[in-house]
Amino acid sequence: MLLKEYRICMPLSVKEYRIGQLYMIAKHSLEQSEKGQGVEVIANKPCHDPKHGDGQYTEKRIHLSKFSIAIETAYEDNPGTTENCINLEDDDLAKREIVHIDIVHDQYPDKHYKKEEDPKNFQSKKTNRGPISEKNWRETHQPIMCSYKVVKVFFEVWGFQTRVEQYVHSCIQEILLVGHRQAYAWIDEWVGMTMEDLRKYEKDMHDCTNRKVLEDTEIAPNEGAAL
């Protein structure tokens, strides 16, 4: 098993982040369906945690016979300074590798890059936040919050375990970087939304995605006749 704890700071409050993250997921699902790409959504399982409170701690799990991914997430209004935010046991702490993901300065995949979504260029019209260029922005910016994600990847096939687990983590790290950067860059689209507004937006995007998938899979009356 390869265990990493990702710490992703955002120039938001936890309250804002909850809306922005859900908005980003809903918008992403529609964009991917419009590009003709498959979309797999792994729903958050909200959990009650006395330390973090309802809605500030989630779990995700994928389990197959020889492959599993487990993700535990907690959110706090700080710059990633809590030593053991998710209360890992000693065995897991000994295995843990901490990875800080910097949405401003980390190398960003060229295929996803958009100048207007680069925090070094972006300035929010509604909140007046940004651009962000300081190397130490996580220590100086207000508001600031951190998403703590403990990710456990296990692949039980001798000879391939290490390479597969490392590859899965590299994919997860890229997804986290892209998703969080976009959630911030789209702040003017979602800031001020209530949870009720967000749920309506999610439903609308879900309906649009379903319509798009159905349109793409429908076969015209004579299509395929030459096959």
Write down the overall geometry: globular
Mean pLDDT: 86
Whole-angstrom Rg: 19 Å
Order of helices and strands: EHEEEHEHEHHH
Q: What's the CATH topology name?
A: Alpha-D-Glucose-1,6-Bisphosphate, Chain A, domain 4
The tally of domains stands at 1
CATH architecture: 2-Layer Sandwich
Domain Phosphatidylinositol transfer protein N-terminal: 65-206
GO molecular function, one term: phosphatidylinositol transfer activity
Protein name: DgyrCDS13878
Organism: Dimorphilus gyrociliatus
List the helices and strands and how they pair.
Layout: E1 2-10, H1 14-34, E2 45-46, E3 57-63, E4 67-76, H2 90-95, E5 97-101, H3 137-140, E6 145-155, H4 161-185, H5 187-190, H6 195-217
Helix pairs in contact: 1-4, 1-6
Give an overview in words.
This protein has helices at residues 14-34, 90-95, 137-140, 161-185, 187-190, 195-217, and strands at 2-10, 45-46, 57-63, 67-76, 97-101, 145-155. It has a single domain (2-203), classed as START domain (Alpha-D-Glucose-1,6-Bisphosphate, Chain A, domain 4, 2-Layer Sandwich). 37% of the residues lie in helices and 19% in strands. Mean pLDDT is 86; it is low at 37-45 and 219-227.
